[in-house]
Amino acid sequence: MKPVRLPASATSALPRWGLWALGLLYILPGLIGRDPWKNEDASSFGIAWTMAHGGLSDWLMPNIVGLPMPGESPLPYWIGAIFIKLFGWLLGDPLAGRLPAVGFFLVGSLSVWYATYLLGRRTEAQPLRLAFGGQPEPRDFGRTLADGAFLIYLGSLGLLLQSHEPTAKSLQVSLVAFSIYVAVRLFEARSLRSAALLGLSFGLLVLTRGWLLPLAMLCGLLTLALMREKAIARDMLLATVPVTLLVAALWFIVSWALLPGAPARFAIWETINLRQLSWPTWTALSYYFKYGIWFAWPAWPFAGWAVYAWRQQRSTLHIALPLAFFISLTIMLLLNPHPEEGILLPLLPPLVILAAFGLPTMKRGAINAVDWFSVMTLTACAAFIWLAWIAKESGWPAQIARNVYKLAPGFKPEFNLIALVIALLGSVFWILLVNWRLSRRPAVLWRAVVLSSGGVILCWLLLTTLWLPWINYSKSYAGVAAQIDEHLPVVKQCVDTNVGPAQRASFAYFGQIPFGEYGQPHCDFLLYQDNISVKSDDAIWREFKGNWKLLWTGRRPSDRDERFRLYQRVGN
């Protein structure tokens, strides 16, 4: 027996303009008015920027001004480089390079919405018919579930920061969502066209972050197809696999034909992919549960309940298909000996779709518990953000103000009236939303997640309006690059270095520092990065032969460990 019994009044959908407004309010803050930030944001920009201002070899073999990045696939950086070329002159290269993040987010969110909608309007997913009628129409039920999935997607904590950076991870999660949508179309109406489109999606995933993830998804879908309809598995072998190989092979063939060093680079790329496979370890399992609990909030409680509530109909497509994706991706994660946040991201789209089908089966008490948890936690988080901002601007409370400036020594507050007005409007909207939800207690399905997504959007909005200058000061290398540039000759000379990808990208862009060829030290200047706790210079003399004179020492004010030193070669 189906676990869902609903009146038509429970399937009132959100207006389309409201969905678009929420999506834009989610994705736009945090893109404008900042530099590339430390680690992946800066390194991703560096690869795209190098492509945009480089030659064919830079487009085919990702690098950061000469530093090879052999583990990276090129697709996300091709997109970023194209945007830099098109809009860099108008918006500046960093902002132009971040614009693809908007497209990545739209592809992911729309794919989740439409996949849930198609699954939700299927006959086996419909609620039980009521004795006197009044049950919802299939299209209305599917649209309401899709709205709920969209809200859960917006409220996913693990997606928040990643979706605002144009990295390979953000494109990967969007392509996973798109693959689920195409798979729904394939299982609904078997066709070689859908199978080929699925192959295109898998091929693009190979060009985004390697072949392991699409291989895991392909195995999961083939297993599901063999259990449901063997003809679909045949179509996938005839169309999906060849198209996947063809799309991925284009990069390999062109590179091998035009670049002499391509075979060695691809050998490293393949080795890096293979290093992500091993026997299951306790480290991977503990990481999965330790970080997955908050990373996949609020999707996992609803998804878990959906699997339990629909246990008698677990073979239905709306449960079996997202579950097949989730299981195959989880197995891949547990086989990875080096777990990190990026391998958790692909789990979100199938979890979100499963969670949407848990919404109509949740008990009122459970929904109220989630609501109160969201209200209390996110309201407290927003209140603390406001309190800390007041302390930063006014000096009261004194202890909070001291802690703020201790984390970013030298920071000077910048009052921005427009940012303050936006933050105030967002906070008022949150109060009105909480009052509407708690006072009217609407019966619509998406009521259980509207506060979770609204609270996450509010906190992000406050951080990217009130706190953006402070965060940018703490995470940007622009200040350090300017100091290095001041100590170099007016006529730029090449600089040897051991700095990491993010630092190299930031220094090359902000300081126009002409780094020498990686691995072949020959320059008269040396920029050396190490830890401030290191007292001996022996490592420098071993790695970079010659006599060196120290010109400058510095670091980012917010980083107490990282240190940079600039040297000039003296003598022979």
Structural class by helix and strand composition: mainly alpha
- Shape descriptor reads globular
Radius of gyration: 26 Å
Helix content: 55-70%
**Number of beta strands:** 6
Query: Low-confidence parts, pLDDT < 50 over ≥5 residues?
Result: none
Strand content: 5-15%
Largest sheet descriptor: 4 strands, mixed
Task: Let me know the average pLDDT.
Answer: 91
- What is the topology, as strand order, of the major beta sheet? 3-4-6-5
Intertermini distance: 85 Å
Q: What count of helical segments does DSSP give?
A: 25
Describe the structure.
The chain has 572 residues and is mainly alpha-helical. 64% of the residues lie in helices and 5% in strands. The chain is built from 25 helices and six strands.
Write a brief caption for the model:
Helices cover 64% and strands 5% of the residues. It has helices spanning 16-27, 40-52, 56-60, 75-91, 93-98, 100-120, 138-155, 157-160, 168-188, 192-209, 212-228, 230-258, 262-274, 282-295, 299-309, 317-334, 348-358, 364-394, 398-407, 417-440, 447-466, 468-475, 478-486, 501-510, 538-543, and strands spanning 63-64, 67-68, 495-497, 525-531, 547-554, 562-570. The strands form 2 sheets. It has a 4-stranded mixed sheet, covered by helices on one side.
